[in-house]
Write a structure and sequence with these properties.
By secondary structure, this protein is an alpha/beta fold. A five-stranded parallel β-sheet has the order 3-4-5-6-7. Strands 2-1-8-9 form a four-stranded mixed β-sheet. The radius of gyration is 19 Å and the shape is globular.
């Protein structure tokens, strides 16, 4: 425990990663190839934990255990309330699209990250499966795992082979719970196509999961035993709950309050005890118990398509670029330091993101 009564963040994150990998290993014991990979990664994570601790002790550099990286500026869907389109990451018109790093540049970023003890990068977009050239290149960084957040509609035979050849690439298929909820937000027929992708992944014995945006209206449904049983039947090994951020005006009532966060954590604890073969994750989770938001390098930071180092995907402001200065220097960016010095990560807020609600203050810090 830290002296202020909140858990020591480094210890908490390390313990969480160990728990995740132990659960992942247990869930794939019946698949020798997946089990061998999970066991190797467990050993690697222990080494990386020591590396992050060493850098903190010797250099005073806090190295986060994971990154979020948006590699694609296009998407084949137009989901309601999409943060990537709202923040200008995903655009249909080529003239409006942000510059995107080359595949080799992404690979070099992740090589440096892995050398620093960072073993995870959540891959986002746009739709990441629209950039197979980038996915093929970063898959070569074998000492990192890349959960790929996808709508699941583009996973076909060629991608099935790619995923079988690269077990460090883990599809996380986004749905909204029910078929009605998914199609209402994502488009007619999307739920059926996502479920077909899950069936293909299960048939091939591949490790994959699902991502669900949780709101005040659906969180009890998508955490129910009946719903989890359905996902288990499709072969899901990870269920990733993301709290809704009210990007669209008039949807503030869908965002979690403190009471929803507390109930959600209680429900997830029940599910973790009941389903030991499934990994349950929530984002951002119980920030107050951890002394505030994990963004700005405290637990992670976001890399935009052009390499910009940003506090988080919902706070697209930057004063540094990992492609030109590297991950190490980006972690020490003036913006990240200002945010932490101002205690902005602990500011009061409603809904899933502190920095999104206080975006005007953060934008001023980036100047």
């Amino acid at each position: 425990m830290a002296t202020n009564g909140t858990p020591d963040l480094g210890t908490y994150m390390s313990n969480s990663i160990r728990t995740i990998m132990a659960t992942a290993y247990k869930s794939v014991l019946s698949n020798p190839r997946e089990a061998k990979f999970a066991f190797r990664m467990q050993t690697l994570f222990q080494k990386s934990e020591r590396q992050r601790r060493k850098m903190k002790e010797q250099e005073g550099l806090e190295v986060p255990p994971f990154l979020i990286s948006s590699i694609a500026t296009t998407c084949n869907l137009h989901c309601k309330g999409c943060y990537a389109r709202s923040n200008g990451i995903a655009e249909d018109e080529a003239a409006n699209q942000k510059a995107t790093l080359m595949p080799e540049q992404w690979k070099n970023i992740f090589i440096e990250a892995a050398d620093m003890g960072i073993n995870f990068s959540l891959i986002a977009g746009g739709e990441p499966f629209m950039r197979k050239d980038i996915l093929e290149k970063i898959a070569e960084v074998k000492n990192m795992i890349f959960p790929i957040f996808t709508n699941g509609t583009l996973i076909g035979p060629s991608y099935m082979k790619f995923l079988k050849d690269n077990l460090n690439m883990v599809p996380i298929i986004s749905i909204e719970g029910t078929a009605m909820g998914t199609d209402e937000r994502r488009g007619q027929g999307v739920f059926k196509r996502a479920m077909q992708s899950m069936e293909m992944l299960k048939k091939e014995g591949l490790f994959f999961g699902t991502s669900i945006t949780v709101t005040t209206e659906n969180y009890r449904l998508v955490t129910s035993s009946q719903f989890i049983d359905t996902l288990r039947g499709y072969g899901c090994k990870i269920v990733f709950y993301v709290e809704y951020v009210p990007i669209e005006r008039g949807t503030e009532h869908l965002a979690f309050g403190d009471e929803h966060v507390a109930e959600m954590e209680s429900l997830l604890e029940e599910r973790r005890n009941a389903y030991t073969d499934i990994i349950f994750l929530s984002f951002p989770g119980d920030e107050k118990a951890l002394g505030g938001c994990l963004a700005s390098g405290r637990g992670f930071f976001h890399i935009g398509p052009d390499g910009s180092a940003e506090p988080c995907p919902f706070s697209p402001f930057s004063d540094s670029n990992v492609a030109t200065m590297g991950v190490r220097k980006a972690l020490q960016s003036p913006l990240f330091r200002k945010i932490r010095a101002a205690k902005a990560l602990g500011w009061e807020h409603t809904g899933g993101c502190t920095l999104f609600e206080h975006r005007e203050e953060i934008e001023k810090m980036a100047v």
